[in-house]
Amino acid sequence: MLGPFWLTISTGVMVGSLGFLYSALFHMSLREYLPFLALSQVLWGFLATLVSEACTAFTESEVVIRSVRMPFFLFALRILVRNVLVLGHNICVIVVVYLAMWLWPGAAALLAIPALPVWIVDALALSLLLGGICARFRDIMPIVASVMQIAFFMTPIIWKPSQLGGRAVWLPLNPFYDMLEIVRAPLLGETAPLLVWVAAIVYSAMLCGLAWLFFLRARGRIAFWI
């Protein structure tokens, strides 16, 4: 009966549990910390799942690729749409937290809209890049999973950037922080710093360039790799 909303319930339980625990450990107000954690967990869940599934963008569609001549772009688009649908369900967690805390970001939330095209382009580029690389080298996938685990703890998700003090100036070097912050900050009623936006665009351009160069050479070989 619940279908995909089981994922929403699981995310909500995790956000609620971690919110009460870490707000006490970090000596933060629950009203201040819980919206930050809810946004961070939901957005990171989208990014982490997208990266994981990007590794199997082509190998999971082996039969289709070998049988029907289709643009490889469609397989990347399929992963994006699937994860956007899951994200749409998990947004309910954010809405419930905001209503419970009696908070609303106001007009500042509209500043998150320009970040959506950046996320979409990066998601497609990443799916094409990782999908092709993992089709050729099958042991890349566990390496990607390990990197994402490390990135989770190195990125402000369960902890806030302000807790780093003066060392927070180095955070824009973390591409995951930049991608999160250009969406998360407006939804918290804040404005993402210009440096974060510049870093996010630079990283996106590098990712798209790398994906284009790789796919230009690998497109004709993917059917043989899988």
Write the layout of secondary structure elements.
Blueprint: H1 5-25, H2 30-54, H3 62-67, H4 73-101, H5 115-136, H6 140-154, H7 175-187, H8 194-218, H9 222-225
Helix pairs in contact: 1-2, 1-4, 2-4, 2-5, 2-6, 4-5, 5-8, 7-8
What can you see in these coordinates?
With 226 residues, this protein is an all-alpha fold. It has one domain (5-225). 71% of the residues lie in helices and 0% in strands. It is built from 9 helices and no strands. It has helices at 5-25, 30-54, 62-67, 73-101, 115-136, 140-154, 175-187, 194-218, 222-225. The longest helix has 29 residues, at 73-101. The chain is globular. It starts with a helix and ends with a helix. The mean pLDDT is 88.
Order of helices and strands: HHHHHHHHH
Number of helices: 9
Overall pLDDT level: 88
Q: Tally the structural domains.
A: 1
Amino-to-carboxy terminus distance: 37 Å
Biggest β-sheet description:
none
Shape estimate: globular
User: Helicity level, as a percent range?
Assistant: over 70%
Quaternary class: single chain
Uncertain runs are none
Tally of extended strands? 0
Gyration radius, to the nearest Å? Answer: 19 Å
